[in-house]
Each structure stands twice: as C-alpha cells, then as structure tokens.
Design brief:
With 277 residues, the chain is α/β, with parallel strands linked by helices. It has 11 helices and 8 strands. β1, α1 and β2 form a beta-alpha-beta unit. It is globular.
Length: 277
C-alpha cells in the first residue's frame, strides 16, 4: 500500500462554515499532503464546475472525487428519482474528469430512508456503473450507515449481483455498526485479496455502536478503533489500494485547523510503520 495518504477536502468544508470552499483553498498550502479527495456538495449546485478552477492549484492532485451524497438519498426516497439521480451523478463524473480523478466514491443510499428500499439501489446501480465507465472512472460504493441491514451485508449483496463492483471501506461507518472485526475475518478476506475493496476512508469512532447521537468523525487516536491491528491486517492481505483521511478539522466557529490534519497524517504514518505496512 502507498503510505502517501490522501486528504479529504471535506475535512475543511462543512455546514459550520457554510460550505465555503475558501476554507480549504486558503489552508491547503500549509498541509503536509498534496493529494486530495474532492468532496462535492449539493448546495454548490451548478456552480461546482466554476468552483473547481479554484482547486486546480499547481502541484495539487485530486485522484479521488466523493460524489454528492444527495445522489444516494434521491434513490433512497423513491424509484421515480432514479433519472434525476443518474443525471446528477453524470455531472459529478464530469467534475471528476475536470480534476483528473481516477476514482469516484458513491453513497449508493443515504438519508433517513437509507437502505430500506434497497431494490431502488439495485435498479439504479447499472446506470451509475455505465456513467463512471464512460467517464473513465473507477466507481466505488461506500459502506454507508444502514437503517435496515448492515453495510457489510449490503456490500455482500451488491457483490453477488455485480461481481466486478468495487467498494470504499470507511472505518468509522464500520465501527458504528460493530463491523471492524468482521471485515478482517475470513468471511470478507477475499474482498481485500481480490481488490474488491479498492479505497479506504480513515477516521476514528469513539461512540456507542448503533447510537446515532455518537456518530461523529474523530481524529486518529481519539476513538477506540485499533488501527495498528487494522493496518497489520491490510499488510497480511497485500492491500494495494488508496486511503483518504477524513478527520474533521473545523472548529465550532467555522475556522479550520490544518495542523490537526498534519498531526493525523503523521500519526497514521507512525501507526503504519508500527504495523509494518
């Protein structure tokens, strides 16, 4: 695995600062990394294409784009929303191409309805796959928090229908469902060894499994995820995919703390070294 981790732009842009892209752009030069996962926000609307120009700074790369979470929520709400969701995903693919991205992360389900209407997602997924392939992008579906089943059971179900589909594995989402141990079990080992999981979102979780009031993104080491054991597992399966740090670096007043991300990058590097990764 490449230990040069990617940094999420979403760590610096959120509701607390009104999705102000400048909070990332102004702090980016002080970050220790130069490779980023670009987060798309529905509130940006059609301005996203114009905003992208501000992110294209010399020396900065965007190998991954995280698609608008509203895409999955539209499908979760109604099968009638699939055409709108597919159109929105197509725009996100164009953004990814403009940034030079290789991978696109999708919340296939999202919002209060979550995975309760899973047939909708099975119907929509072929359209998303085709759109990503047409744009030359690798589509990865994330193990988003579920309301009806669990993320790993949904991943297994999707894999049975779409064996070539790739996934993004989020550590916080897994910990929330108590699935960090399960993803490292023999049952799911082939997901790693066969490259079915091709991207990781790395963030800590210190809440209670299943308790939405504790579902917060923490800095590495602030929660209870055993990252050394996880990284040792990645070494054992020969994981060769990418990894993005998503640790939130926004203060309550909306200002950002780039040094907090630099500490996370350094801590992940230290833990990887201890794990022999």
């Amino acid at each position: 695995m490449n230990r040069d981790v990617i940094i999420s732009t979403g760590a610096f842009i959120g509701r607390v600062n009104d999705r102000n892209r400048m909070m990332f752009i102004n702090s980016a030069p002080s970050l220790c990394g130069r490779r980023f996962e670009f987060m798309v926000y529905n509130s940006w609307g059609d301005s996203t294409g114009d905003y992208i120009r501000d992110f294209l700074m010399p020396g900065f790369e965007y190998p991954v784009l995280h698609a608008d979470k509203n895409i999955g929520e539209l499908v979760s709400l109604s099968k009638d929303n699939i055409p709108e969701a597919v159109e929105l995903f197509g725009k996100n693919c164009k953004y990814a191409s403009a940034l030079g991205a290789e991978k696109i992360v999708l919340h296939l389900w999202n919002g209060p309805a979550s995975d309760r209407n899973f047939g909708n997602h099975l119907s929509a997924l072929p359209y998303f796959i085709d759109a990503a392939e047409s744009a030359g992008l690798l589509l990865t579906v994330e193990n988003v928090v579920c309301a009806a089943e669990t993320p790993l059971s949904r991943m297994a179900e999707l894999h049975s229908y779409f064996p070539d589909l790739k996934f993004t594995f989020d550590t916080k989402m897994a910990a929330f469902h108590g699935e960090m141990g399960k993803i490292c079990s023999d049952e799911y080992r082939h997901f790693w060894e066969d490259g079915i999981i091709s991207h990781i979102h790395c963030n800590d979780f210190g809440g209670t499994a299943g308790d939405f009031s504790t579902l917060r993104t923490l800095h590495i080491g602030q929660g209870n995820i055993d990252f050394i054991s996880f990284f040792r597992f990645l070494r054992s399966v020969g994981y060769s995919g990418s990894m993005t740090l998503e640790c939130t670096c926004m203060r309550p007043d909306g200002s950002v703390d780039p040094e907090a991300m630099n500490r996370d990058v350094a801590e992940v590097g230290r833990l990887m070294e201890l794990a022999g990764l």
